[in-house]
Amino acid sequence: METSIKCGKCGKPISGEVYEFKGVKICEDCYLDEVIASQPKSCAMRR
Ligand SMILES: [Zn+2]
């Protein structure tokens, strides 16, 4: 039986890896978005 987990952010069924962010199951794309959004804006790239 196939488990269909929907992304708690974009609502699409997650076919690949399921990530969890703040208790919400989300897809990889949304997870990366959240991780990037939650990071402090510091200069990652050095001049
Ligand atoms: Zn998503």
What secondary-structure arrangement, pairings included, does this model have?
Blueprint: E1 5-6, E2 13-14, E3 19-21, E4 24-26, H1 28-38
Antiparallel strand pairs: 1-2, 3-4
Residues 7, 9-10, 12, 26-27, 29-30 line the site of zinc ion.
- What count of helical segments does DSSP give? 1
Strand order of the largest sheet: 1-2
Q: Give the termini distance in whole angstroms.
A: 52 Å
Strand content: 15-25%
Low-confidence stretches: none
Mean pLDDT: 86
Radius of gyration: 14 Å
Which ions and ligands are bound to the chains?
A: zinc ion
Work out the helicity level. Answer: 10-25%
The string of secondary-structure elements, in order, is: EEEEH
Main beta-sheet annotation: 2 strands, antiparallel
Number of individual domains: 1
From the spread of the alpha carbons, the general shape counts as: elongated
Strand elements, count = 4
Features:
47 residues; binds zinc ion; two-stranded antiparallel sheet; elongated; two-stranded antiparallel ribbon; 23% helix; alpha+beta
Question: In words, what does this structure look like?
Answer:
This protein is α+β, with helices and mostly antiparallel strands. It has one domain (5-38). It is 23% helix and 21% strand. It is built from 1 helix and 4 strands. The chain has one helix at residues 28-38; strands at residues 5-6, 13-14, 19-21, 24-26. The strands form 2 sheets. The protein has a two-stranded antiparallel ribbon. It has a two-stranded antiparallel sheet with strand order 3-4. It is elongated and about 50 Å long. It starts with a strand and ends in a 9-residue tail after the last helix. 11% of the residues are buried. The structure holds zinc ion. The site of zinc ion has 8 residues, from helix 1.
